[in-house]
Amino acid sequence: MPRGAPGSYPMLQDILVTGLVNGGVYALLAIGFSLIFGVARIVNIAHTAFYMLAAYCFYSLLVKAGLGFAVSGIVSVAAVTLFSVLCYRLVIEPVREHESAVLIATIALALVFQELMLFSFGGHYLGIPSTLDGVVSLAGVSVPYQRLLILVVAALMLVATWALLYRTRLGLAIRATANDIEVASLMGMNVERVAMATVAISVALAAIAGVVVAPVYVVDPFMWLAPLVTMLAIVVLGGLGSLKGSLIGALVIGYVEAITVFALPAGAFLKGAVALSIMVLVLLVRPEGLYGVAFEEER
Amino acid sequence: MYFLRRGWAELKNEVFVLPSRTAVLAWALALLVLPYVYGDPYVLRIVTLTCLFAMFAASWDLLAGYTGQVNFGHALFFGAGAYASALVSLKFGVTPWVTVWIGALVATGFGVVVGYLCLRLRGSYLSLATLAFPLIALGLLFAFPDFSGGELGVSGLRRLATTVTANYYVAVLAMLAVVFGLWLIADSKFGLVLHAIRDDEVAARASGINTPRYKLTVFAVSAFAAGLAGALFAHYIRVAGPSTLETALSFQVVIWGIFGGVATIYGPVAAVFILYPLTEWLGSFKAFGELRLLIFAVIVLLVLLFMPRGLSPWVRDRIETACPRCKQRNRAWRSACRLCGAALQSLRYRPR
């Protein structure tokens, strides 16, 4: 993740804005990961690899094919979502009973994506022009429109996810399956379908994050590793499977990173270490995370 | 003469009766005679590195496979061993023969600390939390580059021995000793307790097992083996760099472990001996050089689709069957159990 634009303006506002923007992106990623873990008990290491795929897809549609921002954005999110469902059917579903096999299947998937992108686009950084140019002045800080866009999209998506989960029948099914898969199955829900829908939703969130941040961050085949670790820290910090926890964890980690980068010397190297240390500290006090429910021993 | 005959009888009755044991013996002997049969330095280098990674993978299996503490940050111990040994040998001029043990002990210390921090965590929480530790260490290394060498690492280390063959034997003997030691631990009563902790920690505690003490011990033992592997690795390639702490290495060991079959010790070792030379070999082709990680990942995916429990349990089920009465293992092509004489079911009609 890049540092916020250095400048002469005050540091406090800088921290506030950077933390909020990064927190929004992290929240999109972490909530998707949390959903899929809650419903299907899949620790999806490839989650941020889909985010990387979306960024590449966006790049090739926008820069190579010359389509507009809106078209390439929507097409890349849709394509990556469809692709994720395909991957789920072909690779994850056949080994669903074996938890460890699912785990390395997702790791291997992520490696496959990384190598494919490395092979077809090369390892160098790719830049994407900003969707919106210009800056707006908010409380004395000049915020580029692009970052504002990230914030708005993140907020909209979070609200949309909330509405989907709490205001639709599909959302009800997802929550029921996350709560107790066997009872949900007995109540006549097609839990396999629900799991698939959850994969699609969660990857769509990651893909949207990938598309909106691509112009701000550079695009390269290894861009999935750093957010993966941060996202895992957030999810564990907030409590696995808890959406509220993921949101709050994302904001906490976003701000902690911003403070480390702006306030400490050599902060850019230490931001990951500080964020992860906070996660470890929280786990020491509360092993199930901030909002996690202490799972009963599954036998 | 008596001892020779006694030894031969032992060998015949305990080793040759089972194809898997015969295979292990043949593999160990092959490793020991390799330099005399085929002394190509490149091949010896690959096998040396394979041995070091095999130690590392076996140590992960004791922790993750047997005890169920699925560690996603096992590279921490490898890197701790590598850096500690490198720094001590470089700053104080101590011979590497001493510093590899210091490296292993430092890694053991890290193992106890990580184990202590993770005592209350279980399942996915533990996996994801342990992922953090090597990254914290990596952040600290980058933040203090004049101490750790930063991106470049600590270079200019001495090797343990001077010739290629001698270095090869150091690695092979260390690997055989460590892997056999880990296997003995895993096969003992101690290992039985570890199985119990993995399968049901509450029940294990209710049976009067001090599970925190066992878990800490396993963390320490596993970290010791991983640290020794890391220290030997650093002295072999003569650099202790940040790559020894990377997430990629932690994931690599998870892939090796699960690919080979967890809770077996020999499974991950077999996986390393198959996958590591394979990736190196693929990398030696010009056309495949860039694709080798891709091919590696695809192979892992395909193998998993057909053998979700891992390679070695799958193979073992094909060549050996368990006696229905006494649960001893037999060659698959025997018609009666070698110990109790009960009729063995034919492989073809075995109910699934």
Short recap of the structure:
With 299 residues, chain A is mostly helical. Chain A has eleven helices and two strands; from the N terminus they run ααααββααααααα. Chain A has a domain at 11-131 and 142-221.
List the helices and strands and how they pair.
The complex is a heterodimer of chains A (299) and B (352).
Chain A: H1 11-40, H2 47-64, H3 69-92, H4 99-121, E1 135-138, E2 141-144, H5 145-167, H6 169-179, H7 181-186, H8 191-213, H9 225-238, H10 243-263, H11 267-285
Antiparallel strand pairs in A: 1-2
Helix pairs in contact in A: 1-5, 1-6, 1-8, 1-9, 1-10, 2-3, 2-4, 2-8, 3-8, 5-6, 5-8, 6-8, 9-10, 9-11, 10-11
Chain B: H1 2-15, H2 19-37, H3 41-66, H4 75-92, H5 96-117, H6 124-143, H7 145-148, E1 154-155, H8 164-187, H9 189-199, H10 201-206, H11 211-237, E2 239-240, H12 247-260, H13 266-283, H14 292-306, H15 311-319, E3 320-322, E4 329-331
Antiparallel strand pairs in B: 1-2, 3-4
